[in-house]
Amino acid sequence: MTIHLSIVLWLPLAFGVLALLVPRSLARWVSLLGTLLTLGYAIALVADYDTAAGGLQYVTDRTWIAELGIHYKLAVTGLNVVLLLTTAILFTAAALWAALRDEPSERAGLYALLMGLAQSGVLGAFLAQDLALFVVFFDLMLVPFYFLTLIWGMDPDKRGAAVLKLFIYTLVGSLLMLVGAIATGVLAADGGSVSFVLSDLQQHLLSNGSQQWIFLVFALAFLIKMPAFPFHGWMPDGYSQMPIAPLAVFTAILSKVAAYGFLQVAIPLFPKAAVQYQELILIFALASVLYGSVMAFTATRLRLILGYSSVAQLGFIVLGIFALNERGADGALLQSVNHALVAAPMIFVVALLAARAGGSEDLRDMGGIAKRAPAFAALFLILSFALLAMPGSANFIGELFILIGLFQAKVAMAFIAAVGVALAAVYALRLYIRSMHNRVGPQVDSREISLREALVLVPMVLVVIALSLYPQFALGRVEQAVKQSLSAATATAGKETP
Amino acid sequence: MTSVLASVKGPEIDWAAFSPLLGLFGGALIVLMVGLSSPRVIRAHGVPALTIAAFGATIGLLIWEWNEQVSLIQDALILDRLTILITLLVCVAGIASTLLAWREQAAREIAHGEFFSLLLIAAGGMVVLAASRNLVTTFVGLELLSLPLYILCASRLRSERSLESGLKYLIVGSVGSATLLYGFAMLYGATGETDYAGILTQVVKEGLMGDALFLAAIGMTIVGLAFKASLAPFHQWTPDVYEGAPTPVTAFMSVATKAAALGVIVRLFFTALLPGVDDWRPAWIAIAVISILVGNVGALGQRSLKRMLAFSSIAQAGYLLVGVVVVTELGAEAVVLYLVVYLLANLAAFAVITVRERETGSDAIGSLRGLGARSPILAGAMTLAMLSLAGIPATAGFIGKFRLIEAAADGGYTWLGIVIVVGSMISLAYYLPVVAAMWRPDTEPGVDPATGRAVLAGGAQEAEAERGGWEATLVAAVMGAAILVFGIVPQPLFELVGDVLKGFGTG
User: Membrane spanning segments where (chain B) (predicted)?
Assistant: First the structure.
């Protein structure tokens, strides 16, 4: 029983509250300090994580609501240890971005509070080892993004409707998930005292019938949150209206909570249903890969290109998870980290491009931005290569693992998925070439990246490069946990196909 | 003469257990008397202060009687945990409504003494209703709560809306009462008993389950109670009455009446009519589902906050019924817990509406525009209220909904839990725009888009706060804080409503 995780979990929110109280000019820096401290703490936790021992570490377990059987149980596991660090990195980048660019100009304290709440929510969802607590954080992390978009969103006339759509879409999933979670707890207790602690629930797996509908409810919630085709209806509007820094963390890390949810909750608790619906989920994932890639190839708004590419990438991640073998799931977790680390700086790049193209985020208004900006072009190119999973990047390894896993499970699907890899190259290069090269756009003013901008972007690119050089950093830590997470499902599958 | 009196033996009354009722009714008398005094200060400020004192004293008496289970006046009433909890809710709602009504136009128009003593009498009626173990006292309690409310709804004598509201409530309410009375008469006809315990024995002994007269009685009773609790499809009066009545009265009605109605539903159906559970359960399930759908869909697109909250209260009553139809102790506990969180959210919302209504003269959603920047306390309370009603985590509403769904799953009605969350999803579409109106930066500063009037700015704000009243802001702040605190540390709530069925059916 340690207090470390409680500190790392609530530190961002505490600094958010502090930022609300200090003078306005300091708010952004207080917020940055909070994320830096959290990052430091997260680094320490990761460094100290005992990979060989595995299992739950730094367990904090207290009864939160005795009557409901909800525990405040947090732990670092192989599944979440790297994601924890990624979250801390991305929120630090977002806070740095806000501080260096003096964004937002109004109500900076409230902004800092909401970002702090968002970070605490995401960290909570990753750390929670209690099903109800997971659901609480899963819902809670969405709330600040509602306000962030509402108050600081892009278009004053459209943002209200867009964010309402986002909120309702995702809450449809998570409210159904709430019923599923409660039903799981009640049914597993079977008249005894209810407990939502994941390890308790794994001891009493539900009957096949209950597993099926509850699994589907969880899967729906996760697929909406990602988003996966055809549950992505909120994405184009939501992405268009969200302010830059919140969008960076939203696209990078909130979607990964959903992917993580499959491995942490849905598959271990409902293994029979996971095996049974494996093909259904794979079909959704495959459709996401193809649809997302094609849409990313045709869209002209930069945010939407990245939004659809993230639909495709998340599709890949789900393919890896639902290969239901270790190789695929290892790849999926690595790819979650990769995509998070690439997607966030890409969103910042969008803002930098727009600033150089007369404020337009449309690809058609761009071109030739590389002319006087070789350093910016180099950074952007590295990110683009990572996004398209160039051999040598960690993304390549992630996708390779996913495809190998899928080949072992479903050969036909793996062939189709391989097409998606090629498509990624098409849209990533199109994005880069059309904006940085080609004919110079009418409004384009090619400027080199400024020091303030570089301060955000360069460290993030360095992180991407570092992970590419040493992907074992992530893979080594997840392997054992993934094996455990899949054990019940593989056992079920093994029984069915002897 | 003395000998005649001596030969009539009155029922024995446990005055200690009876004291909460005396607090309310005695308070009503005193308030009425003091309201006759001539100094304006006493009428305008002494009377509401005394009203709060009466409610406060009643709460004190409740705490004193906390662990008692006493049957009163030959089992006509009972003081058990359920009665105590419902009375507590009614008193808290009473105090909050009194604070909201402190500067209310309506209280001035029909005289303070009358206004506040009617409020106390209605509260007393609610307690009688929740405590009754006899059809006759049930009906007396029901009328005792209804009649003052008819008057209170119409208490803004110079507002057509308010008069219409009172009249509408009177007519529809009377139909409801009449239906209920029919139901009670038939129940008496079927069993030959008026007290709940007697009815229970008779139903079991005679095997009345499925009997035509008994079924008709149950049907009429359900319809009558559904009228009173404003459950769909018997809800048509609710939006008009809520909108027309003075806001503090609406606040009181929406919370306290609902608590009392749910109290009597739990007591009547968990005791006297329990053997007929298979007969009445489908009816209540249907009403619950219809209420959730009608309430949530009806609230969409409403411009008036009070109308919106009227429809929302129909939906919330539907959620509450889910705890009734499972007929378990967990269900009863979930109902009372949800009543508490519903009370917090609704009182916070109505407090904010009261303030804004005084400042802008309108209860349109647009009247909240820009509130987030100008008055973060009010906007924060309203935001928490809306999120709590929608059931978002970190608010008390989430805990309440969690418990209700758990009770549904535990009772084998998981699908009703799904109906609840489907309702919650729809509800986001009308709760969130209220939040959005407050926090979205004003596109056209200076002009209030709702009224088209110029928004008071700068120096005028002081005067504005004065007119809005610090009491209402206090209510909003306290309720808002409670929503957040109980959302994070709900333990005290569970301790409060635990053992809600303790002493249930004694005597």
Answer: 15-34, 46-64, 84-102, 114-132, 138-157, 169-188, 208-227, 283-301, 308-328, 334-355, 376-400, 412-432, 474-494
Q: How many contacts does A have with B, using Cβ atoms within 8 A?
A: 95
Two tokens at B178? 């009449």
What span, in angstroms and rounded, lies between the C-alpha atoms of B307 and B321? Answer: 21
Q: Where are the alpha helices (DSSP H) in A326-410?
A: 326-356, 374-387, 394-409
Residues of B with CB under 8 A from a CB of A: 373, 387, 391-394, 398-399, 401-403, 405-406, 409-410, 414, 417-418, 420-421, 424-425, 428-429, 432-433, 435-436, 439-441, 443, 490-491, 494, 498
Q: Residue type at B422? A: V
pLDDT at residue B443, as a whole number: 55
Give the separation between CA A223 and CA A262, rounded to whole angstroms.
Answer: 10
With H, G, I as helix, E, B as strand and everything else as coil, classify residue A393. Answer: strand
Does residue B77 surpass a pLDDT of 90? no
R_g over Cα of chain B: 22
Place of tokens 């727009």: A354
For residue B287, which of B228, B209, B217 has the smallest C-alpha distance?
B228
How many residues belong to chain A? 498
Closest CA to A354 of A338, A343, A365, A346: A365
- Give the relative orientation of helices B470-488 and B460-468 as an angle to the nearest 10 degrees: 70
Residues A303-345 have pLDDT tens digits of 999 999 999 999 999 999 999 998 999 999 999 999 999 999 9
Which residues of A fall below an 8 Å CB-CB distance to B?
65-68, 106-107, 132, 135-137, 139-140, 143, 146-147, 150-151, 156-157, 160, 163-164, 167-168, 171-172, 175-176, 178-179, 182-183, 185-187, 194
Query: What residues pair up with A118 in beta bridges, in sequence order?
Result: none
Q: Are residues A182 and B417 in contact, defined by beta-carbon separation less than 8 angstroms? A: yes
Whether the pLDDT of residue A196 is over 50: the answer is yes
pTM: 0.91
Judged against a pLDDT cut of 80, whether residue B466 lies above it is answered with: no
pLDDT at residue B176, rounded to an integer: 92
Mean pLDDT throughout A195-220?
89
DSSP string, A113-181: HHHHHHHHHHHHHHHB-BHHHHHHHHHHTTHHHHHHHHHH-S-TTTHHHHHHHHHHHHHHHHHHHHHHH
pLDDT, one tens digit per residue, over A232-252 is 888 888 888 999 999 999 999
CA gap B333, B502 in Å, rounded:
11
CA–CA separation, A291 and A289 (whole Å): 6
> What are the CA-CA distances from residue B466 to residues A365, A368, B103 (Å)?
54, 61, 10
Q: Where are the domains of chain B?
A: 301-507
Of A150, A167, A175, the CB nearest to B440: A150
Amino acid letter, B383: T
CA dihedral A404, A410, A412, A417 (to 10 degrees): -50
Residues of B whose CB is below 8 A from A108: none
